[in-house]
Design brief:
Layout (H helix, E strand, L loop, with lengths): L2 E7 L4 H17 L4 E5 L4 H10 L8 E3 L8 E5 L9 E4 L13 E7 L3 H13 L4 E5 L5
Parallel strand pairs: 1-6, 1-7, 2-4, 2-5, 3-4, 5-6
């Protein structure tokens, strides 16, 4: 069954959420997992750019969906569905219909987005998925 991790950041800006997604993707990729970062259309370029430089001193091979060449990290919009099923980092506004085929799903919630995070949490809980809550302070 898919494990769902909620990461609660004290930050209030969306860029912090993007940076944390890069950090999670790096950690999972280094451990040998394939990662897909699902984001909104307007954030796609920002996350793609961050994957080239964050975390500092770590290059993370990645590609957008449709341009995949075996990179450990793929990046796509809410309308795109990845082909692998290991780790999903969901930066989208909704829970994707295909989430339950992944081993792990990560939801990153900013302090200002707690209400939306709670709604997602309830939906996963009501589906019987194992949920893990990580309250992060000074994560950088």
């Amino acid at each position: 069954m898919t494990r769902i991790d909620f990461y609660i950041l004290p930050d209030v800006d969306e860029i912090a959420r993007h940076r944390f997604s890069c950090r999670l993707a790096h950690k999972a990729a280094v451990s040998g997992k394939r990662v897909h970062i699902r984001t909104t259309d307007c954030a796609l370029d920002d996350v793609d750019a961050l994957l080239w430089e964050y975390p500092t001193q770590h290059f993370l091979p990645h590609a957008r969906l449709g341009v995949v060449g075996g990179e450990p990290v793929t990046l796509g919009t809410e309308d795109e569905e990845p082909t692998h099923d290991e780790v999903l980092i969901n930066l989208g506004t909704e829970i994707p219909g295909f989430f339950n085929r992944f081993e792990r799903v990560s939801e990153i919630v900013l302090a200002t987005q707690r209400a939306a995070g709670r709604d997602k949490y309830r939906r996963y809980r009501d589906g019987g998925y194992p949920l893990f809550h990580h309250e992060l302070d000074n994560w950088e």
